[in-house]
Amino acid sequence: MTWNDVDLGQKIVRVTAKPQWNWKPKDCEERCVPIPEWLVNKLARLKSRSANALLFPNQLGRFEGHFLAKLKSLALHTELNCGHCVNKRCQSCKDKPVCNRWSLHKFRRTFATMHHESGVSARTLQAWLGHSNLETTLRYLRIADLRSDRIRLQVDKTFAKCVRKSQTRNSRVIRISNRGRLS
């Protein structure tokens, strides 16, 4: 990602092709994704200190192509590996950064799930993720815990209008019945 992909005023980032690095977006879908205010503020501070066109350059100031290796090293260092994975070189994730539990794709799924649970529609997420097919987006979304407080509040909110309408209708029926008896 380059600083040209970031619009701090609009609070969005653009996912665009980078032919100079032989990179194109998933499904070739260029898109804009909104970012939260706190990230806008952090990026503004970072931009003011950066002379590089890249948001996340490597130590030589060039394109960083080792995010997965960095993630796996961080997971090992923070003892988040599962301890059961063994790669083709017979290295175990107990003591090497090779755990299959960690992938960069998990961040896309987490992004989608968190926004969906906050009320963002699947169609909007489809556009943000650059999926050409809604079914692909739906596979990203984790099923919510039906017993969670958040789900219970959503269910109550959904049916609150129905209850109010029903109560209003019932009170009208009672008034009509009372009128009928009085005549």
Q: What is the H/E string?
A: EEEHHHHHH
How many helices? The count is 6
Percent of residues in helical segments? 40-55%
Mean pLDDT: 85
Number of strands: 3
Q: What structural class do you assign from the helix and strand content?
A: mainly alpha
Distance between the termini: 78 Å
Uncertain parts: none
Beta percentage is: 5-15%
Within the largest sheet, what's the order of strands?
A: 1-2-3
Radius of gyration, rounded? 25 Å
Largest sheet: 3 strands, antiparallel
> What is the general shape?
globular
Task: Please give a quick description of this structure.
The protein has 183 residues and is mainly alpha-helical.
Explain this structure.
This protein has a three-stranded antiparallel beta sheet. The radius of gyration is 25 Å and the shape is globular. Among the domains are: 1-65, no CATH class; 147-183. By secondary structure, the chain is mainly alpha-helical. The chain has helices spanning 37-49, 67-77, 105-117, 122-129, 134-140, 149-182; strands at residues 6-7, 12-15, 31-34. The termini are far apart. 47% of the residues lie in helices and 5% in strands. Strand 1 and strand 2 form a beta hairpin.
Secondary structure layout plus pairing:
Elements: E1 6-7, E2 12-15, E3 31-34, H1 37-49, H2 67-77, H3 105-117, H4 122-129, H5 134-140, H6 149-182
Antiparallel strand pairs: 1-2, 2-3
